[in-house]
């Protein structure tokens, strides 16, 4: 399947500090992909490069076949972007905003906008200054949906939205994608709610891609093993097949994409005792934290 968005060997630095190193991934059409990572992992830098606000020092990102730092107006019109600091005309009401923005977008779909507004029970005639932060966020999301973009980039879409609104929006987004075959790249700090939302996952850690696969494949293949803590296990560090290590008072937890046989063989080969060895079930959030670390 042809990729709609792709990055190849991208690197970028702020001064001497590298925010991204050798980042490569592709996104296929018609899916919701989560670009995830802890604060400072490089997510916002990737978004800024994709939208042409930054030109990478090395490598290249392409959207619809064009370099992201040189997108033509026609290609930009095919992209709906939500980014922190999105400018809103607070003196307008949702109804007035819809009338204002509609002429700028040939594919404008007012029904999508008002459907989301009505589901969230936002008064159509109240000025944005009279709405809550979460309600204003829903209005902005509705404006992006109404554009009927082929690609939506939602940077921290959940900011300022409470749990009920977040769940409603994800349900609405799923329905929207089924109807319009839109491709979505989103970031969020609330990982647990993305379990039912995303199809694919790209996880960044310290500026590098550590996972790029379907979300079900990630949950099924990433594993946690626990065994009795020992002097040897205290020396474990992330090195293939070990992806990360946690130490509790009495136990060591080891995270890996490898199966039990491979991990046991690795421990035995390094003379590390692993008494009371067992496998620990993981959900999506557990797996994300296990790979990226708690701190």
Walk me through the structure.
The structure is a single chain. The chain is α/β, with parallel strands linked by helices. It has two domains: 5-214, Rossmann fold (3-Layer(aba) Sandwich); 222-292. The chain contains nine helices and 14 strands. It has helices at 43-50, 73-76, 94-101, 110-119, 133-146, 163-180, 215-221, 260-269, 284-292; strands at 5-14, 17-27, 32-36, 58-63, 66-67, 79-82, 151-154, 183-186, 200-205, 208-214, 223-228, 242-247, 251-256, 278-280. The strands form three sheets. The chain has a six-stranded mixed sheet. α4 packs antiparallel against α5 (133-146). GO terms for molecular function: ATP binding; ATP hydrolysis activity. InterPro entries: AAA+_ATPase, ABC_transporter-like_ATP-bd, P-loop_NTPase. Residues 5-231 form the ABC transporter domain. Keywords: ATP-binding, Nucleotide-binding.
In the CATH hierarchy, the third-tier topology of the largest domain is known as: Rossmann fold
Mean pLDDT: 91
The secondary structure category is alpha/beta
What is the level-2 CATH architecture name of the largest domain?
3-Layer(aba) Sandwich
In the CATH scheme, the class of the largest domain would be Alpha Beta
- Characterize the largest beta sheet: strand count, sense, and whether it forms a barrel: 6 strands, mixed
Task: Please count the helical segments.
Answer: 9
| Total number of beta strands | 14
Order of helices and strands: EEEHEEHEHHHEHEEEHEEEHEH
Integer-rounded radius of gyration: 22 Å
The CATH H-level superfamily of the largest domain is P-loop containing nucleotide triphosphate hydrolases
Q: Strand order, biggest sheet?
A: 6-7-8-3-9-10
Indicate the low-confidence ranges by residue numbers. none
Estimate nothing, just give the exact number of structural domains. 2
Distance between the termini: 37 Å
Indicate the proportion of strand residues. 25-35%
Morphology: elongated
Helix content: 25-40%
